[in-house]
Structures
1.
Amino acid sequence: MPAINRYTCSPEIQISADISVFGSPRDLRVDATELELWQEHTRALRSVWYDGGHFYLDDHIERRRAQ
């Protein structure tokens, strides 16, 4: 079971830093909607989306190095 499925964060928790989330709309294990929920805990959420499935980063290593 992935850690994201076990982690819960109270709605009143606010993080003073910006948050970046990385995901793939075709990831069947981590839903894109769940990643976007981090918006509730920060003033600035940056979302980066990749093509691919759950292991999308394996296909995009060069793009990640450039960021």
2.
Amino acid sequence: MLNSQVIDPEAIASLRALSPNDDDGFLKEILGIFMDDTPLRIAELHASRTSGDVATFTRAAHSIKGSSSNVGAIELRTVAEQLEHRSRQHGLDDLEELVAELEAAFIRTRAELTKLVA
């Protein structure tokens, strides 16, 4: 059973419904892409924060927000949205804790999604 505070089971059901007769092949592919890409976007957050590149930071947060929404990663989406908003409104100051929160949320999300593709 998925942790519904981390993953929206309805989003997973919707992804499964897109290709109902493929033994979760489509779902596994989408989740695999998400789990491979998100660490790259997190690395972008770190690099752009270090270099002071607000635009790249905001795009990376927006990308994580969107992909999280697509796979029903509720908690991760929420934190990414906060990062996107704060970076747009206030730049990159005081975001270290929120980036760490995003990383922790991704670890929980990955653990829950891994249960689906194992």
3.
Amino acid sequence: MNPSLIRALRGPVLLITMGILFAYDQLADIRFVSSWPVLIIVFGVMKLGESMAARSQSQPPATPEAGQL
């Protein structure tokens, strides 16, 4: 996956997550005050995915050495 695609999706994903947390605050016993760390977790997962995508793109494909064929 492209790191710039993940970076572009980060904002909408966080906004959707925040909307879900606010909906839970209104509809269920889960208060936003106790559930906001989910936003930090989602942000961290997105950054991790971006980092892994950038790392996989920067490494050239592995080629077997002549003696290993």
